[in-house]
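Hi Y.,

Following your request, here is the sequence exactly as I used it, all 64 residues.
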Amino acid sequence: MDHEIKSTLETINKAEFDMGHKWVFPTGTKKYHNEAKDTMYDFAPNLDSDMITTAKNLKDTETK
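Below is the corresponding structure, written out as C-alpha cells. Let me know if you'd prefer a different format.
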C-alpha cells in the first residue's frame, strides 16, 4: 500500500470518528437502481432557427 492510499484511509477513519458515522461503501451484493435509465432522452431534438443558422454558417466557413 503506498503512502497516499494509507493517508486517505487514515483521513476517512478520522472523519468517520469525528462525525460519529461509518461510511459504508457498496459491495456489489445489493442491487442499485439507475434512475437515469428510466428517463426518455431525445437524442435528436429539433433545433431552433438560431441553431440552424449557426450550423449553416459554421459549415459555410469550414468549406471555404
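The chain has a mean pLDDT of 88.

Thanks again,
Q.
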